[in-house]
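=== RUN LOG ===
request id: a7f3
mode: sequence -> structure
chains: 1
length: 174
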Amino acid sequence: MQREPVGASSATRPFSMTLVDPTSSAGRAIVRRFFTDIVGRYWGREATDVEVEQAMLDEPSDDLRGDSGFLVIVRNGERVVGCGGAKIVEPGIAELTRVFVDASARGRGAGKALVSEIETLSARRGVHTLRLTVRDDLAEAHRLYRQLGYEPASPFSTSPHADHQLAKMLLEPR
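=== RESULT ===
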């Protein structure tokens, strides 16, 4: 699925969204960039290849396809600049995951457009609640989620990296 560019003007925000299989070369490449970013932030230094590979093994993305979820990539022209997905955890409830926007596209609306796309696709799949966890060191992500209406939720994750647990009720699809 290829969507037209989103944003106020395609000249200033030429982002397009595409559903991809996380096991495809494009899917694996952007998920690797996601893990490189979050592992590096966690350690406060550049992540090593071994650390990134281990994180990808510990938290596989293969279930972000079919009935269990989906992965969206964000392009700025031809360049892939981000990704995000939703994992169905039970009927009507999904978790927002693998949300990443490259530094080159941050502050230009890519994150908002990406999360909006994931919300729309989730609602079309019958999801009424989208929830997520976010670490303290991912302050800009936490700020974005709060701006988009995600609110503190009852604990649902035991992950040591779930500093904040948020959720949002989705509108019925149009």
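=== NOTES ===
Residues 1-12 have pLDDT under 50 and may be disordered.
The radius of gyration is 15 Å.
=== END ===
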